[in-house]
Amino acid sequence: MEYINELLVKRGVNENVSKFFSFGILVLIVILTCFLAHFIIKKVIFKYMTRIVKRTKYHWDDQLLNSKLFDRAANFVPGIIVYNFAPAFPKITLLIERCASVYILIVLVLMINELLDVVNDIYRTYPISRVRPITGSLQVVKIVTYSILGIVLIANLMNESPLILLSGIGAFAAVFSFVFKDTILGFIAGIQLTSNDMLRIGDWIEMEKYGADGDVIDIALNTIKVQNFDKTIVTIPAYAFVSDSFKNWRGMTEYGGRRVKRSIYIDLNSIGFCTPEMIEKFKKIHYLEDYISQREDEIREYNKVNEVNTELLVNGRHMTNIGTFRAYIINYIKHHPGLQENAIQIVRQLPPGQYGLPLEIYAFTNTTEWVAYENIQSDIFDHIISVAGEFGLRLFQNPSGYDVRGINIEEPTDLSR
């Protein structure tokens, strides 16, 4: 500034005016220098870097290039230039240095924030990100970075050492723990969830308390997002997955099969012994040929050895329509192409109740895909419900309007019966 001022004075400019002009010329030089540096960085250096990046076979550098990190870096340079030009303005050197420092720190925070976001985006392209998400950890790094740079920024504005501000770290920690209580709890919960492999992105979970029934789409520091099957999104506090219970269907997906566990209800009044005509009819059923033959030999041998009088059905052993029906279902599901052959398959009777005798089918499909699972399950029970009448069995259901129409109201009721 003194050099410019002397040049102007030598050329006959008034000393007071020359000081004003020298100040303006120097400010203009600083501004032009900043614009020139910014232009060179963006239009020359970054353009050259872009060519190099596009020639590489890696994808992570493309994401780095497409982010705003380089723009932040270009904005960082003018702050350094202004800071270094501060001594050229003797009367306001301290003010310029402080303002430039504040600008540099703010741009630095934005650069770190952008860099961490890019790291997270690159990490998500790898399969390990579904097992070990790092979003929560990066958010903690951001908070720590913001806190440190915030202390440095305040110390710079106060023209004090950052260590003086850190001397009150006890009170600051108390306030910090109160304000960021959910963040701290979420961070601890995130560590437990990832270290114990309790939750991954893509897991199907159920959490009735929060209305969640769908896939995990994001695991952050404070919250976990779940997209329900109706496409609504539920946001759940991370610590809720540690303090409350939830169901994770990952085990079913990894197993490769989904359980079928459903009952049909048999009217108890339709259950009885098989007549010779029924047995002859059952022999013609494909899935019962071997069963009927084996069962007849077994019963005949038992009654013969024990000298049972078979004139009464209550004596000895006899085939029943419910037992034969159960054997048919067992053979049917064993040969069903939609069920796993090596998985457990059971057709069992549950305790009878007000709705009749529950006959439960327990098996596993060979797919976990929802639509295919429902089709397989429906196909099985379509067939079972349809063939129940062939065994002389009736399925229980509450009386409907059709049943009521069959009652003759005009006919008197004999109460003596």
Notes on the protein architecture:
α5 runs antiparallel to α7 (135-158). The protein has a five-stranded antiparallel sheet. The protein has a three-stranded antiparallel sheet with strand order 6-8-7, with helices on one face. It starts with a helix and ends in a 12-residue tail after the last helix. By secondary structure, it is an alpha+beta fold. The protein has 17 helices and eight strands. The mean pLDDT is 81. Helices cover 57% and strands 11% of the residues.
Strand order of the largest sheet: 4-3-2-1-5
Q: What is the general shape?
A: rod-shaped
CA-atom Rg in angstroms: 40 Å
**Mean pLDDT reading:** 81
Number of strands: 8
SSE layout and pairing:
Blueprint: H1 2-10, H2 15-55, H3 60-66, H4 69-85, H5 93-124, H6 128-131, H7 135-158, H8 162-166, H9 169-179, H10 181-195, E1 204-207, E2 212-219, E3 223-228, E4 233-237, H11 240-243, E5 247-248, H12 250-255, E6 259-266, H13 276-282, H14 289-305, H15 321-334, E7 346-349, E8 357-364, H16 370-387, H17 401-405
Antiparallel strand pairs: 1-2, 1-5, 2-3, 3-4, 6-8, 7-8
Helix pairs in contact: 1-2, 2-4, 4-5, 5-7
